[in-house]
Design goal:
alpha/beta, Helicase, Ruva Protein, domain 3, Phosphatidylinositol Transfer Protein Sec14p, 2 domains, two-stranded antiparallel sheet
Amino acid sequence: MTVKKAKEELHEIFSDREGAVEALKEWVDKQDHLKTFKHFRFLLKFLRGAKFSQLRAREILEGYCSNFMEYPQWFTNMDPCSKAIDHLLSIGYGFPLPGYDKMGRKVLFYSISKLRLEDVGEGKLLSVDDMLKYWLMNHEYATMDEKVQVNGFILFFDYTKVTLKQMSLVGGDKAKTWNKMAQDRLPGRLKGFHLYNSGAVIEFFFALAKPILKKKYLERFFIHETLESVYGAIDKKYLPSEFLPDDYDGPTAGTCAELAENYKKEMQSPKWIKYFQELSNGSIGVDKSKKKDTKDEPVTMFRKLNVD
């Protein structure tokens, strides 16, 4: 299914991939103002996010690199072992579910009621910026999966026992800034927002979301009032045990605590510590003073861009 979808939806032709990545790399090599990774898998992620339009891939990549200069509170010092990130991993605020949903997409699961601006040790108070950096790191983790690059991912928000105070932690100008950046400058296919047990907070949520989300994303909201509705989107075997019926005797993914613990071990493994250190230590960025006028530059291997 992934190979077929890559061809039909992303216009990805396997025999052309190396040439497309090489064309993007050659363009990067000519941009004195850009600093970025140039390995195959990294650049392929931007081409897939752009449906193999070289022009759009350049725009996303340049915007992504600019993020490291413009939003250092989120894009620098990404450390899975820092006090704040370790705390969010430990409480199980957000983690990917094992496997994929019924359309082959990765599910990023968030338990909103667990979020509090609390002491995380050594007198440091968890901040909204810490939370947004955590979202970013989860996004990076998910979108390095080639299956996710093709099929996309969804966000699942569990609002059980959430308060309006918790709902309002991210709002106003900070929310607008984050969402504009995430919608325009992050490679990836965000295919849906699934809200469970949102109850009375749903109107408050949409009051925050409508002014800052593009129309295509507003059309990708799914409200689940019952677990039966959730099961229609996500196979039971991938859901936390707390979400399964008492009489369910099939395979299980584990409890929320077990899934959070497994994700923490994965994120704090040498592989991911190294990745985030390399990503946020100055290897990526933009020096606008060195940018050339490229309006007359030819676009190699341009393909028609369709809106995702």
